[in-house]
Amino acid sequence: SFCSAFEYSSNSDLSKARFRFFHGQRRVLLVTERFLWYRRYKLKGVDYVLFYGPPETSDIYEDILNNVRTPSQCNSMCLFTQFDGFAIE
Asked: Which of 31, 63, 65, 84 could lock 80 by a disulfide, CB 3.0 to 4.6 Å apart?
């Protein structure tokens, strides 16, 4: 099961989702890039990060990967296509 957090989520929904994810009640926390940019929450308890396309700014990479649970054991992956070439450069 999963929980989600996006820029239009209410504060109570965000608190519940983050609590459930951090305490292991939910294995996946699905967030949008807009949520990460506008809300600037620190997402704790992350072991694996999957970016579905390269983020618009490198700040998103830094914010997410600086808050992982165990940096030496964290895995991250970014999915991209040939059309994302400019974003990757």
From this structure: 84
